[in-house]
Fold this protein.
Amino acid sequence: MSGKKILEAKNIGICYRQRAGFLRYDHYWALKDVSFSLHAGETLGVIGANGAGKSTLLRMIAGIVDPDRGELWREPNTTASLLALNVGLKSELSGRENAIISGLLLGMSLARIRSLLDDIHRFSGLGDFFERPVASYSTGMRARLGFAVAIHADPDVLLIDEVLGVGDQNFKDKSHRAMKEKINSNKTVVLVSHSMDAIKALCDRVLWIHEGKSIICDEAGYVTNGYLEAAGMAYQAEQEQRRQELEHCEL
Amino acid sequence: MNYKEILLYGVYSDLRTEVARRFLGFLWWILDPVLYMAAFYVVFALALRQGGEDYAPFLLIGMVAWKWFDSTARQASVAIVGNAALIQQIYVPKSLLALIQIFGNAFKFAIVLGLLLVFLLAIGKRPSLHWLALLPVILTQLYLVTAVGLLLAGIIPLAQDFKQVVDNLLMVMMFLSGIFFTAEQMPDSLRFAFELNPMVVLIEAFRSVLLHNQWPDFFHLLYVIMIATPLLAFAVLFIRRNERRYPKLML
């Protein structure tokens, strides 16, 4: 299943700078110490609580940000991009024109986009709205346009941040099917999700990060079980503490 | 990623957006400079009674060249900051964002230049072979605005306060660019410093071609290129160095 290594990260740290008042900046390490590797053709899941650094990790794999410490190696000439919706939508322009802009930004050539436009149009299910300005779209319609373009872009590594529930039930099913197709094909995918069921069903291996540090990166079932156990233990500890506090009050 | 296609389509879609956003559409590309120049004409030629013979064309040529520099500098300086949401989601070479602004403004300049030529013909100026020299003058200014635009685009995301400085600097530069008066009208002690300003040199070149039917001083153009080249080199290197830092700065 897993082919040759196409990306390896060793002890990665990423730091954001935040303005913290007059003449002051704060530094915030979104990733502190993360190590993992990615192999061609596999689906790697990423799990962890909110704020653990999952999205930052995807941004790093996509080449949007560079690590501030640690080592990152990637196979030369591999493209990686986020399954990003609404990339640079301009509300004055039509769905068709926006599809072209997004497609170009997602790395497709103009000729390729032109040949795919009919497919994108059909997939989006926008009908006549495809030729109208995006300003007249509902939120769901925008997301459908964005998804239709993004799913047609074909990077070597596809990065998915949460299996998105886009649009109405009908489109949601359609988008999930399209995503599963990509994942089950021989494409390399990195999938961030809070749904352990989705992770277990779709991923070969899973990376678990906690507060910016990688805990483990191993076979899917093994890691998710550990994660759920840890979450359970944390929950129990919390209950225990609450019980003690209550007792304390009663005394 | 096909950078040339992104650049061309980016310029096209930006211009389309501007047209679509306003009721009078592309007419604003004509109305805006006409109103702007009329305001200065009223103040300087009619109210302050500047000038003398040919003051109107003298003023207009200066304003047209200056407006090109000014609007490019302003818009390019926010090219990266203004696309914060985009560059968080996908990797785009940041200089491309600035170049889209620079070329879009060059296109608008071409329209205004056309109007200016019509105006000059209407008041009785006659073209001569010397008008061919417009081409090298325009290319020199394009080179200068590209250098300045990229430089501002690259620096401002790292120090956004600098935007305020730039705005004021541009205003001072406008009054010191010889739009309203010539170098001869400056006190001798200041004249040397005044002529160091590349925009003074360029505006003079435009005037000698269009107003006096003379060849521009090609050494002066060379001087502008020599000023712009190190700026351009620095800007390109600076942006390339910070390519993956910009997304971290804009949270």
